[in-house]
Amino acid sequence: MMIDIQDLRVSFGDGADAVTAVDGVTLSVREGESFGLVGESGSGKSTVLRAVSGLNDDWTGRIAVAGAEQGPKRQKGFYKLCQMVFQDPYGSLHPRHTVDRILAEPIAIHGLGDADARIDRVLRDVGLGPSFRFRYPHQLSGGQRQRVAIARALVLEPRVLLLDEPTSALDVSVQAEILNLLRRLRAEHGLTLVLVTHNLAVVANLCDRLAVMNRGRLVEEMTVEDLRRGAAREPYTLQLLRASQGYDRATAESFRDYA
Amino acid sequence: MTDDTPLLEVSNLRVAFPTRTGMAEAVRGVSFTLGREKLGIVGESGSGKSMTGRSILRLVPPPGRVTADRLAFDGGDLLAASPKRMRDIRGRRIAMVMQDPKYSLNPVMTVGRQIAEAYRVHSKAGAAEAKRRALEMLAAVRIRDPERVYDRYPHEVSGGMGQRIMIAMMLIPDPDLLIADEPTSALDVTVQMQVLAILDDLCSQRGMGMIFVSHDLNLVASFCDRILIMYAGRVVESCRASELHAAQHPYTRGLLASLPKIDEPPGDLPVLSRDPAWLEA
Predict the structure, then answer these.
(1) Which tens digit of pLDDT belongs to each residue from B185-220?
(2) Chain B residues with CB inside 8 Å of A251's CB?
(3) What ipTM describes this predicted complex?
(4) Which residues from chain B sit within 8 angstroms of residue A255, using beta carbons?
(5) From B268, which residue of chain A is nearest by alpha-carbon distance?
(6) What is the pLDDT of residues B27-41, one digit of tens each?
(7) A-chain residue closest to B195, CA distance
(8) What is the pTM of this model?
């Protein structure tokens, strides 16, 4: 198993104000697998990802990545293994750093040599090429920025990429380019992907297996083949599937809240 | 108004912004007419779809310049209308719902008072009458406990509820035309469908016309009656919503093809290659 999560719980706030964002989630992702974590806002899907990546240190349960048990704090070596890409490429790149400096930073942090060749290689790998190397983020389109964010994650040659809504801030034509890029990178580098999204069609395109979350709990796990056939077991998943199929007056009427 | 006067006539609409290298046109000659129907305007970011919606209400910020051969609402010229006349039209006759309720509601005023205010600005009603109407409107957008929500501040309500509150506020003066700019993009899919159902019912019950600006082709195709597809400030294609799948323009076809679909096997998606000829098509 590349990622093994047992009974993960995350809550925010204290006492009467405490909110349980993740409520006993158990799941595992195999090496080389592309796994989708799907849910609506507030379902806890991003919080699971943030706990795995070490961005949230206040959790209970068990998280193991590549066989290594993780505590609240991550060792530096962890980030050589596991990197994250965020939703908003307008917010996740330093506006006053060039692409070169953005990509050089992780190399310096991890004391890897050969920065010049690494940056050149990773830029080609994400389809940008050397001409983008000394530009600033504001000189790039949204899709180009997301490619830089993916390059920053890949420059350390990790084995796991955690992706938090990587295409939902992009136009559909650009989304297609980024999905194709992620598929190619996964195949070439044997990456394990964990993709958090609200978009079932994106999961169907890029993932092998998925888990559906609602209000902090894992509702059901299924293969993408089952998703494609509409073979969900849980009513909540079936409702999500219906809602993804476009507007229909009668369908909208049938929606209910699942606790 | 007779039935054969269109609600809105737009002919050769242009919106331009001055830049260091001359005028940059965000909207380049858009023409359409709108009856009491749901018209979708679809396009990617930068296509001019939002600017088209804003220019109808003359809400394009300076130094942007709006010109048109004709921009008429209910037979009256909007471009020649005085600021006072525009204030009467905005809200009362043409209302606009924006994308994000977080930034569009007043954070230091309860939502009930904001809705009541929208009513009082456009009618001579007293405070008690306005409150009664506001509560009715909250119920009409299917808020379960209107009395309780009336006294809430915007930060105390969820995104879906905030968007319904915005819609209630926009619809309380009973406008003839609603311009909705990505009204449901910030919402979860199930809430999105419920909000659309409310708009759908209000259109059919009140005979309101609606311009629905969105980037989501499938959503627009399933919700609207007619669609304009915009690219680089122009309408490249218009069709009945039910016939979007048979669209002819290579841009529209490219956009449709680039959408991942749940029932298709995984694999590379066709990528849109932009033809410079589309800029003039």
Answers:
(1) 878 888 889 889 989 998 999 899 999 999 999 899
(2) 193
(3) 0.86
(4) 190, 193-194
(5) A180
(6) 999 999 999 999 999
(7) A252
(8) 0.89
